[in-house]
Every structure is written in structure tokens, then in C-alpha cells.
Design a protein that fits this description.
- The radius of gyration is 24 Å and the shape is elongated.
- It folds into two domains: about 35-155; about 155-210, no CATH class.
- Helices cover about 25% and strands about 20% of the residues.
- Helix 2 (about 110-115) runs antiparallel to helix 3 (about 135-150).
- The strands form three sheets. Strands 1-2-3 form a three-stranded antiparallel sheet. Strands 6-7-8 form a three-stranded antiparallel sheet, covered by helices on one side. It has a two-stranded antiparallel sheet with strand order 4-5.
- It is of the alpha+beta class and about 210 residues long.
- It contains four helices and eight strands, in the order E-E-E-H-H-E-E-H-H-E-E-E.
């Protein structure tokens, strides 16, 4: 039914049927704010594909400083190298990663996604015989190590025990042991191998045998 309006409209309200509740609106969390001074760590990546090293700096912001629930979380990432071959995608990657960090929430999914990237030209072996499927995957490993170090991810930092497991795998399974690994249920890395009748992740150290 149409109604003819005879007067000038000066305002309006939305009429709701009696008893109808307002729709629940999901609000996007505000972006994290940057402090004047941030603490961070710089990691070095050196691949056999380039004579120049790559330096990855991850800066953290402190949440709830001085409170019992004070904690750190990544805020931004910078990647620098003298090798200009990868300049364009490196700039794009750092901007996307930093934007995701600033949105807050769970950012650990980045590790699994990045470590699953394979270079169509083939991966490479790091010093010590560890296999990396791509530069992006190694950057993902760096992010994983950083998240573990600030308590955002479960896992182990590189320890003498873990290095010993990796060397044992190289001796028993060959230098490409990591390349043949299955996916770890704990950290997501394709690094689970069979040692002494036990499945062990050469990335985070998780073992089904304790």
C-alpha cells in the first residue's frame, strides 16, 4: 500500500515489529598502534642462489605494558638485501605481512602458508644439510622462530638437541632427509622423519615418543 506524503520530510526512524531484536554486527578490531620505539630482532638468510645475504627484521609491539597479561606481538617486518633480483616481490611481501601483523589476531597461519611455497626451479640446502623448498619458505621459518621466541607459537628454538637430531637424520637418511619429510601436526612443517622407529619433526622437535 502506498502513502502520499503531503509535508516536507525533516527526519526519519526505522520502524521495527514489536519484539524484534537489532541485528548483531561484527565489528572489525582496530589496527594495532605503533609505539615510538619498537624492539625487534634481525635474522640472516644466505642461500646458495645468491652471493648476497638477506636480512629480515621483525619489530614487536608490547600489548598491555605493565599489566599481568603483558605480551609482545609482531607489528612490522623489513627485508633487505643487495640482491635486486627479488626487490619487487620482497616489497610486496613485507607490506602484506606488516598489514596482517597490524590487524592483530592469530597470525600463526602465515608460517604454514609460507613454508608450503615451493620454487618451481627447485629448492636448496642450507648450511648443515637442511632442505628449503624456496626463499619464501625460509622466510616463513624465520617468522616461526620469531613467534616461538616471543611466546605466540608452541615449539622449540634451535637447540643443541634438535641440531643433533638433524645431523642424525642426515647420516641415517641422507642429506635430503628434510625434503622427504611428512607434515608435522604441531608446527605444520614438512619435516617429520622416522628415526629409531619413532616419528620426529626436524623443524620443531616434536616427537611421538616423547
Amino acid at each position: 500500500m502506498s502513502i502520499k506524503i503531503e509535508q516536507k520530510i525533516t527526519g526519519y526512524t526505522i520502524a521495527r515489529p514489536e519484539g524484534e531484536q537489532e541485528d548483531n554486527v561484527a565489528h572489525i578490531a582496530p589496527l594495532l598502534e605503533r609505539d615510538d620505539i619498537l624492539e625487534g630482532s634481525t635474522y640472516k638468510i644466505k642461500t646458495p642462489h645468491s652471493e648476497h645475504a638477506m636480512y629480515i627484521t621483525i619489530n614487536d609491539v608490547v600489548i598491555n605494558a605493565g599489566q599481568p597479561d603483558e605480551h609482545r606481538r609482531p607489528f612490522e617486518v623489513f627485508i633487505n638485501s643487495k640482491n635486486m633480483e627479488h626487490f619487487m616481490w620482497i616489497v610486496a611481501l613485507t607490506r602484506v605481512l606488516s598489514a596482517i601483523f597490524r590487524k592483530g589476531g592469530d597470525v600463526t597461519f602465515l608460517v604454514e602458508e609460507m613454508k608450503a611455497v615451493f620454487d618451481p626451479r627447485g629448492g636448496y640446502y642450507k648450511k648443515g644439510g637442511r632442505y628449503m623448498p624456496s626463499i619464501v619458505a625460509e622466510i616463513g621459518e624465520v617468522i616461526q622462530q620469531h613467534l616461538v621466541s616471543i611466546g605466540m607459537m608452541e615449539g622449540q628454538l634451535n637447540t643443541a638437541e634438535l641440531e643433533a637430531k638433524r645431523k642424525e637424520a642426515e647420516v641415517k637418511l641422507g642429506p635430503d632427509a628434510m625434503a622427504k619429510g611428512n607434515q608435522c601436526d604441531k608446527c605444520g612443517a614438512m619435516a617429520v622423519v622416522r628415526l629409531d622407529n619413532c616419528d620426529c619433526c626436524l623443524e620443531c622437535g616434536d616427537s611421538k615418543c616423547g
